[in-house]
Amino acid sequence: SWMSAWEREFLNWAETKVISTDTVQTIQKAESDSKIYKIYPVAATLTEYFLLEYRDPSPSGADSAPGEGLLIWHVDNTVGSLSSNSVNTTDNNTQSSHGRLHLEAADGGRNTTISDLGDAGDPWPGFEGKTTFADNTTPNTRAYSQSGARFSVKKISLAADSISFTVSFTDTLSEYNTSAVTSVKADTVVL
């Protein structure tokens, strides 16, 4: 499988572009475009951030990752140690409830065990068609401190050989206000 955005950034094998204002982006496949996009969930903290990349495991390509779409990686460089090979010891890490690198899977899965290393539901929009990653989605755009989200990623859309999305720092919520739903019945939603 192709290296993750974090690995490529760490090895300086990619061009990292920081997104800090409202924008619309189009990304090419990771194996043909070295750009990675970075968003900080807390403006004053440079050790925690999200990395975005487009992966497409086409039969002719070098990428064997399951599923096609936008991968969103949550990075906390204060966790784990490279020298002791404990970068992602989430299950046994007594200092933190999360690892240094976590894939924010569109299907909400954790993918942290040997038996669950990822599936086709992880990339956005994924098989569930999730086009928004925001403060009120699962998973969400919040920092690990769970402070309110600073940004949202919306309108995630696949094209022939690219994926596009909108990043907003002014509208951090999903267009679907899930907190307004009080109950769901077979054919009725009560607001």
Report on the structure:
The protein is mostly beta strands and 191 residues long. It is 3% helix and 28% strand. The strands form 3 sheets. A 5-stranded mixed sheet has the order 1-3-4-5-6. A hairpin with a 3-residue loop joins strand 7 (152-158) and strand 8. The chain is globular.
Give a short synopsis of this structure.
This protein has 191 residues and is mainly beta.
Essential attributes:
191 residues; 5-stranded mixed beta sheet; 10 strands; 3% helix
Q: Layout of helices and strands, plus pairs?
A:
Blueprint (H helix, E strand, L loop, with lengths): L4 H6 L4 E4 L4 E6 L6 E5 L8 E8 L13 E8 L24 E3 L48 E7 L3 E7 L14 E3 L2 E3 L1
Parallel strand pairs: 1-3
Antiparallel strand pairs: 2-8, 3-4, 4-5, 5-6, 7-8, 9-10
**Widest sheet, order of strands:** 1-3-4-5-6
DSSP summary, beta strand count: 10
What is the succession of H and E elements?
Answer: HEEEEEEEEEE
Q: What are the low-pLDDT stretches, counting only 5+ consecutive residues below 50?
A: 177-191
Q: What percent of the residues sit in helical stretches (DSSP H or I)? A: under 10%
